[in-house]
Write the structure tokens for this entry.
Amino acid sequence: MKRVLLFLATNLAVILVLTLVLNLFGIARGVSASGINIGQLLVFSAVVGFTGSFISLLMSKTMAKWSTGARVIDNPVTPHEVWLVNTVRKLAERAGIAMPEVAVYEGEPNAFATGAFKNSALVAVSTGLLESMDRDEVEAVLGHEVAHVANGDMVTLTLIQGVVNTFVVFLARVVGFFVDKVLLRGNSDRGPGIGYMATVFVCELVFGLVASIIVAWFSRQREFRADAGSAKLLGSPRPMQQALRRLGGLAPGVLPSQMSAFGISGRGNGWGALFSTHPPMEERIAALNNLPPA
């Protein structure tokens, strides 16, 4: 549950901060004593909704390195580092993308890919994953991460988050206006008051929960596509299936909340499954069985 709350808090924090700043400077257009200007409110909502998403995307590589302590392999020294870099290069060439940065970080089994652009991405793996898997399984995981980059998944997830953020901001203000104007203040000619601001804050939190469920669903579909992408890059689904079986028997490495959607593995139980960014391992393995022949 703590992991879910951190994930949700990360998604909502930028919206709430931008909303507060824009309101303080009187830039919150679209809602006034005379009513709601739908066009202005939509523009305002889109600016708030997409700004946070794109800021997060542009900072994703820097934040990933900082939050995980990842060490980029600029000049491979050990045979293992040489193999790791060469494997990523081979997979990137097959996928038709530029060579990503390759990094290693200390931690339990996990891996992730991030970056604002296909041709300047970062692929990172944990020491725990490298120590607990054989090379075929590690290559499958790397193929999964390279497939994320080739599919443009970071940008796609950012756009989806921006769209749902826009609706969160928009609907929160519509509800806030109704509560403030109709339920609390009647026919007052003054602008939105404290009831409006309080309602907007609460609604952004509540609608943000729903938005996170939608984004998590898209993220789970993204994982299936990356698994299939790994199978295509390696010419067989078996290495990816074996890697997933291995990961299913290990405690997944916990990534920082802002990186959790980009990891190779993750789990959610009960209500937490609605917010899980990754499908259950058994579903991912079964999906690979249903791939068309290469």
In short: Strands lie at 31-32, 35-36, 71-72, 101-105, 111-114, 122-126. Residues 1-8, 251-262 have pLDDT under 50 and may be disordered.
